[in-house]
């Protein structure tokens, strides 16, 4: 087979090695414009986990790399005058030049024709190759040649960074967060060979411009950074190597192969340097492509198999890199955290490392986080919380006004569509009762409507007629009598999403029979075929506000511990907030303040009836996931207003405003919104959405991304979710008396 690699970086050279090893008869040429000693960048990093892959693929290359490695286990975080060290992380670094030297020699030894100093400007002479490898990095010529087929998209990120080197031998992977009069500077530094370290400086565009670095020469950049980091450099100099300030571009391609051309490494995808995966991904691509070609004789089929195999890993790495780079874009947000929480937050930023993983790597560090968290919980609640050993974060108490929750697990509101004329029945008793016995600290009722017309469906629960109070009281009393859980009522009005079918007969679909007139902020139907709501006039607003007030009084009579007002998911009050559903021209439409006017009127009215000793929460949609809709930054402003009007905690959900929204699902997909609201609006938050493991919950809480973790479907699957978490975490959760025997029972699930 005749193989041409455009580019002799890690991907091109490693692929050449692996193919030549697989079959010495392959004719392989690598065309590289630079001499290896002229290469950009300083060190490259590999985690211990990557090593095994490399060892299996080509032992001599691996062994030579191991001989050159500088290894370290620690991550040091310098922040607000403190240094926190976490160990057990297992990384190895070596100079990019050294790596290229190893790969170049190995390739030549195997008989690969490596042509250094060859700049390819025209691909025509190479089109008759059996494989044309696009290993030519981020600005790939091969990709440009077939860009209509590959369909590249680059997401240019706003932060500025510069790649520098220094002779200071950093003992650990080191992060600095340092302020000067221009703003906050982040440094990512690590030693990659004795006496040689990479030193990346990063800042927001505003900070970078304030320091006039937009006009700086390379020398001026060096001078500026040396003057900024004298203690950090400890007398060592910084060195440059094509060290210009850049924006990071995350590159994605719709396809990685076309005909005989195939992209690998940075030509196909990039991942932010903060997760150190660029070179690793490039070399793993080479492994996957070489293996696919060994398995499949037909080249297009092999290229397809390579792409199919690598996509999931690369997508997942890019997702992790995205969260990580955003963390560094938003670092200013976390600068008031306590050092131990800041460090935990930083280490768990990409969702790849959790409370559990970190406990395996560095038990002492996690114990110090848990101890600190327990102390905070103790002072926040005014109740003693043990600190040796401390409970896992999710089993610490939390106080809202006079309400004390025994732990941080919340059963999310979930419509059951099983009531008749709003009255909860035995189904609701068993549904909520069993979840309370299951150990959660707080159990929410489903969205319960303030009027008959405000129901989503004929099966929704209500708080609008006298019979509802004793029916709810029975459930509230059961929860109080038989569990440590508290119970919250979620009150809402469905607005333009009212008069729809039971979920299993067609979610949000209009009723075929027995419908009723509906109303909303503006006369816009949910689906094009939905009922058109009436635009609410002042009289309607007064009626709805009075309905909320009456329902709140009934909630007091029923004995609920917490009240949540539903301002999310496109229902009536939410329809005022989102510009997608509010087209009003009066004082209730237009500006954000106008759109919040009616929801705030309702909140104010409710707060006067709901006892001052009891907490009020509000569920919001922090993003509409649709053009022109609410964005997370808007949600911060909404939350500030809610806080000023007596809301104690924001339950941060998202979406469901418009039917054609494009949500970005994934693990903990809404938690970043809760995190942002918590820090920027300075109000307690609940995180919800695809939080399913206890380690996710512990991580969210310990990192300070939310105060409570809300789980919906996980609780449908397992009403005893909290008890299972306790069992797994070695924490003792008392059983109710009738189940007392369980205190001596050891469950076995496998
Ligand atoms: C400035 C900079 C510094 C970096 N530093 C580090 C670091 O310190 N650590 C780390 O882990 N990652 C670093 N990275 C990321 C890392 O380099 C890449 O993720 C990784 O090298 C990808 O390997 P690759 O083989 O796909 O591409 P590259 O390493 O980019 O290799 C592509 C090669 O193709 C050659 N080439 C391109 N076009 C042509 C052409 N037309 N003709 C001939 N040759 C051509 C280039 O000269 C280059 O050698 C850095 C990236 C940049 C941009
Ligand atoms: C069956 C079901 C009913 C729901 N009903 C409500 C509701 O009444 N009120 C509400 O705010 N959210 C409701 N939701 C949304 C959940 O409360 C939660 O926000 C969402 O399911 C994401 O959490 P999860 O990933 O843990 O399931 C419902 C979800 C489900 C699965």
SSE topology sketch:
Elements: E1 2-6, H1 10-22, E2 27-32, E3 43-47, H2 48-57, H3 59-68, E4 70-72, E5 75-79, E6 82-86, E7 91-95, H4 96-110, E8 113-116, E9 131-134, H5 141-145, H6 147-150, E10 152-166, E11 173-180, E12 183-193, E13 196-203, H7 205-210, H8 218-228, H9 230-233, E14 238-240, E15 246-253, E16 257-258, E17 261-263, H10 278-295, H11 299-329, H12 339-347, H13 355-361, H14 363-381, E18 398-400, E19 403-405, E20 409-411, H15 426-437, E21 442-449, H16 468-482, E22 486-492, H17 503-506, E23 519-520, E24 534-535, H18 538-558, E25 562-567, H19 572-577, H20 592-609, E26 616-621, H21 632-644, E27 649-653, H22 671-680, E28 684-688, H23 694-702, E29 708-711, H24 713-717, H25 721-729
Parallel strand pairs: 1-2, 1-9, 2-8, 5-11, 9-17, 20-21, 20-29, 21-22, 22-25, 23-24, 25-26, 26-27, 27-28, 28-29
Antiparallel strand pairs: 3-7, 4-7, 5-6, 10-13, 10-14, 10-15, 11-12, 12-13, 16-17, 18-19
Helix pairs in contact: 1-4, 1-10, 2-3, 2-10, 3-4, 10-11, 13-14, 15-16, 16-18, 18-20, 20-21, 21-22
Descriptive tags:
binds flavin mononucleotide; 750 residues; binds flavin-adenine dinucleotide; alpha/beta; globular; 8-stranded mixed beta sheet; 8-stranded parallel β-barrel; 21% strand
């Amino acid at each position: 087979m005749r193989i041409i690699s455009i580019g002799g970086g890690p991907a091109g050279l490693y692929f050449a090695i692996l193919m030549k090893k697989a079959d010495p008869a392959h004719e392989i040429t690598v065309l590289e414009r630079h001499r290896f000693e002229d290469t950009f960048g300083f060190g490259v990093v590999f985690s211990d986990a990557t090593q095994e892959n490399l060892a299996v693929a080509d032992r001599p290359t691996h062994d030579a790399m191991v001989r050159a490695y500088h290894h370290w286990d620690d991550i040091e975080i310098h922040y607000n005058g403190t240094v926190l060290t976490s160990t057990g992380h297992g990384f190895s670094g070596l100079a990019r030049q050294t790596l290229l030297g190893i790969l170049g020699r190995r390739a030549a030894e195997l008989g690969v024709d490596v042509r250094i100093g060859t700049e390819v400007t025209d691909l025509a002479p190479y089109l008759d190759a059996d494989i044309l490898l696009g290993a030519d990095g981020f600005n790939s010529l091969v990709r440009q040649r077939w860009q209509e087929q590959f369909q590249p998209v680059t997401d240019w990120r706003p932060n500025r960074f510069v790649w520098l080197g220094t002779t200071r031998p950093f003992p650990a992977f080191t992060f600095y967060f340092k302020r000067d009069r221009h703003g906050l500077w982040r440094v990512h530094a690590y030693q990659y060979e004795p006496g040689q370290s990479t030193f990346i400086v990063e800042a927001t565009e505003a900070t970078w411009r304030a320091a006039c670095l937009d006009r700086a020469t390379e020398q001026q950049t060096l001078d500026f950074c040396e003057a900024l980091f004298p203690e950090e450099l400890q007398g060592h100099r910084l060195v440059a190597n094509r060290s210009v300030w850049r924006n990071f571009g995350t590159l994605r391609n719709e396809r990685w192969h076309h005909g005989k051309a195939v992209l690998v490494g940075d030509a196909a995808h990039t991942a932010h340097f903060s997760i150190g995966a660029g070179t690793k991904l490039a070399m793993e691509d080479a492994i996957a492509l070489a293996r696919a070609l060994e398995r499949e004789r037909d080249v297009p089929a092999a290229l397809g198999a390579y792409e199919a195999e690598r996509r999931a890993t690369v997508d997942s790495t890019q997702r992790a890199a995205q969260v990580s780079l955003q963390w560094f874009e938003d670092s200013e947000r976390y600068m008031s955290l306590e050092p131990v929480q800041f460090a935990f937050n930083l280490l768990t930023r990409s969702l790849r490392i959790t409370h559990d993983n970190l406990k395996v790597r560095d038990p002492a560090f996690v114990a110090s986080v848990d101890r600190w968290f327990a102390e905070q919980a103790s002072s926040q609640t005014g109740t003693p919380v043990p600190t040796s050993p401390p409970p896992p974060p999710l089993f610490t108490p939390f106080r809202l006004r006079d309400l004390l929750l025994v732990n941080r697990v919340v059963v999310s509101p979930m419509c059951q569509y099983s009531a008749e004329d709003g009255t909860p029945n035995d189904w609701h008793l068993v549904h909520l009762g069993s979840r309370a016995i299951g150990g959660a600290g707080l159990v929410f009722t489903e969205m319960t409507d303030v009027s008959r017309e405000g129901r989503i469906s004929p099966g929704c629960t209500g708080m609008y007629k006298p019979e509802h109070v004793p029916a709810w009281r029975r459930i509230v009393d059961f929860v109080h009598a038989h569990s440590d859980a508290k119970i919250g009522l979620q009150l809402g009005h469905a607005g333009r999403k009212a008069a729809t079918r039971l979920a299993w007969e067609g979610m949000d679909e209009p009723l075929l029979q027995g419908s009723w007139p509906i109303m909303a902020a503006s006369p816009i139907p949910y689906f094009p075929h939905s009922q058109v709501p009436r635009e609410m006039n002042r009289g309607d607003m007064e009626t709805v506000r009075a309905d909320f007030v009456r329902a709140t009084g009934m909630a007091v009579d029923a004995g609920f511990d917490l009240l949540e007002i539903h301002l999310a998911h496109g229902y009536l009050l939410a329809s005022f907030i989102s510009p997608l559903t509010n087209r009003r021209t009066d004082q209730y439409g237009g500006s954000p303040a106008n759109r919040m006017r009616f929801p705030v009127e309702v909140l104010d009215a409710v707060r006067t009836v709901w006892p001052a000793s009891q907490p009020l929460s509000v569920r919001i949609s922090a993003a509409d996931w649709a053009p022109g809709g609410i964005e997370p930054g808007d949600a911060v402003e909404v939350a500030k207003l809610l806080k000023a009007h007596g809301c104690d905690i924001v339950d941060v959900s998202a979406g469901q405003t418009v039917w054609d929204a494009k949500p970005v699902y994934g693990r903990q997909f809404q938690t970043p919104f809760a995190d942002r609201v918590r820090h920027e609006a300075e109000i307690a938050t609940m995180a919800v959405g695809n939080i399913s493991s206890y380690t996710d919950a512990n991580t969210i809480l310990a990192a300070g991304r939310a105060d409570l973790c809300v789980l919906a479907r996980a609780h449908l699957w397992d009403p005893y979710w909290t008890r299972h978490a306790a069992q797994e975490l070695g924490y003792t959760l008392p059983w109710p008396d009738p189940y007392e025997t369980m205190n001596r029972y050891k469950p076995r699930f496998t």
